[in-house]
Amino acid sequence: MSAPTAPKLVGQGIDRVDGRAKVTGAARYTAEIPMPNAAYGVLVGAEIGNGTLSSIDTDAALRAGAVAVYTHQNLPRVATVPVLPSAFGHSAPGQTFFPMQDTTIHYFGQPIAVVVADTFEVAQHAATLIEATYTAQPPMVRLDDGRDRQYLPDSIFAGLVPAAQSRGDFATAAAEAAHSVDATYHFAANHHNPIECSATAAMWDGDSVLVYDSTQGIVASQLTIAAYLGISPSRVRVVADYVGGGFGGKAMMWPHVTLAPLVARELARPVRIILNREQMFYGTGLREEQEQRITLVSDTDGRCTGLRHHKLSVTSPFDDWAELSLEVAGKAYAIANWEGRYQLVKGNTMTPTFMRGPGEASGMVALECSLDELAEQLGADPVELRLRNHAAVDPESGNRWTSDGYAECLRHAAERFGWGARNPVPGSHTDGNWLIGWGVGTAGYPVYEPGQPQRAHARLRSDGSLVVQAGTQEFGTGVATIASQVAGDAMGVPFDRVRVEIGSTDFPNIAAAVGSTGAAIVSSAVHIAGTQLLAQLVSIATADEGSPLHGRTSAEIEGVDGTLRLVSDPSIGETYSAVLQRNQLSDIETTGSWLPTPDPEAHGKLSFGAQFAEVAVDPELGLIRVRRLVGAFAPGRVLNAKLARSQVLGGMNWGLSQALMEGSLPDIRDGRWANSSLLEYLLPVNADAPAVDISFVEFEDSVLNPLGVKGLGELGMVGTAAAIINAVHHATGRRMREIPLRIEHLL
Ligand code: MOS
């Protein structure tokens, strides 16, 4: 191996390579990619939330110009109902129900027909003419209405996580404790609203299909579609040029993804299915309505000795799914006695799914607000109390973290926020009529690792340019930019000579970008591809009598800016092009493959951060305004300072949205979501966005992967909502336990 060179590109806040394409509209989403002779498929959803479809009349739709209508009567049966095959070494938990196989209606909006027409407009109109009759039963869509039917499953999440977990002895800890906080938090359901609604387009050529899909995992789409259709994955090619945000809603495979190729095959014509905004509330899962009860106990010094964290949430009729709200909350502090439990209620909803900070974001609201209460009881400073309870090791295993940085983040962010000037008495800070409150919350997120190799291909051409290919996709994170930086450093090629190609399953396998793993898995594979290719080039040069580096060992040589040279004397060397051209090689290539190496020490794996919020509350009107947010995060290596900041900026604003705005309200009469539009599902706009101050505390992590990347995307959202809710308490003296906080709750 040649001598490692210090990173030059990695870490820099380089602009997105696709930034111009995105702002000019040249970047195309799935629905915009031209397909000759394509027809449009529009889904028709059930108008009841529970029951059976008695009849469905498609005549009027066909008379209005639909070229075909598919219902349970004429849609071919799917070969299987798979859960998503995941590259994490096990099956990922997806919805195990596929619609239009029979007449049962499990949830409002469940597809009962696909109406196909030559234009989107005709298809949309014809879809309104489908006449269905039902035998309806009352739907269960509200936690309160199913409370008496709750149950404790063996496991949740497709069998991956036990529903009841514990360490130590909580009951004894509680009996012996000096202080105790017992509080129940309720969280409304949430729905994903990425800027691009989900869409899938399919075009058959013989027995092979090309699928354009708005997905967080092209390979996962490929494998899932193949399984549903009962064909080999080699017959399914999935392409995603650009995806307009996913946030978990495009991580699992939902019915429309398979319906497009299924209908296109029946019709022998390309078909494009686009969900509209309302259909996004019935088409891509949700963050489930839930209640979390926390009992947190401590000794006289505020050292927490026990934590009981019980969750009760709504799942679908077919899957035991709950977002993992207890896992990070159960490990974030040094608490010896812990008990966690996921109770479920079956409701008439889709199977819930990942939504940014899936579980961590809600679990840390309950925990961090409880810590705030404990601090108040003790008369302790909330920051000081957190430091007192910091988990120096993973409390679950007693093993060291791969890297930590929590205390540094907390101190650094507190300093930047000006926390030292805080008077703990609620209502003591004011600005005119406004009550000002300051609050803190901890961020934590697991580091997930793949169970299967992650791969990237690298090719150096004799003109000195480098092309890297990987089967990942751009959904807003800037992965191609990051991969270009990593490849440029690994191979010693200037940034503008690197091109990264992604978005096709023709490229080497990369797992779906879920759980904040995207940057880590892609950068690891690309780094290995780049270093392998450089080694290949070095061995060609050292074996070549015509090279000034002939006979040297690889350790003596470095690759910098497209030139191989001696580390000891940079004046001796030659360009990459010279090596290849003299050897009559048009190019050299390699595939890098990365799997985490076994970790004999079984380190704890968690990313940490700290969040602070300032709110202003109008006590007469109940208005809550977030004035500023300050966050510090320790995500291991920061690959691109600008992109990292963007990720966290979005996450922190989403935390604001979680605390104060987002909530899907079920209509208990028919099971629909009563606010399924951007008019009524509240999201923050620029006028709501506070000043946000973000810093990274970089800690080297030498355990996880070649570049020490822990992952960042979701961390930025965790803890923000708790900081805001704690700030509202500081402003008003009110403990708010209903999320999102609403004006009427404050009055
Ligand atoms: Mo993330 S919620 O796993 O896309």
Description:
- This protein has 747 residues and is an alpha+beta fold.
- It has three domains: 19-25 and 450-594, Aldehyde oxidase/xanthine dehydrogenase, molybdopterin binding domain (Aldehyde Oxidoreductase, domain 4, 2-Layer Sandwich), CATH 3.30.365; 30-138 and 192-283, Aldehyde Oxidoreductase, domain 4 (2-Layer Sandwich); 399-448 and 602-747, Aldehyde oxidase/xanthine dehydrogenase, molybdopterin binding domain (Aldehyde Oxidoreductase, domain 4, 2-Layer Sandwich).
- 24% of the residues lie in helices and 25% in strands.
- It contains 17 helices and 30 strands.
- The strands form seven sheets. Strands 3-5-1-14-11-12-13 form a seven-stranded mixed β-sheet.
- Strand 20 and strand 21 form a beta hairpin.
- Helix 6 (218-229) packs across helix 7, helix 9 (360-378) packs parallel to helix 16 and helix 12 runs parallel beside helix 13.
- It is globular and about 80 Å long.
- The protein starts with 18 loop residues before the first helix and ends with a helix.
- 55% of the residues are buried.
- The site of dioxothiomolybdenum(VI) ion has 12 residues, from loops.
- Residues 216, 246-248, 251, 354-356, 358, 514-515, 714 line the site of dioxothiomolybdenum(VI) ion.
- It comes from Nocardia uniformis.
- GO terms for molecular function: iron ion binding; oxidoreductase activity.
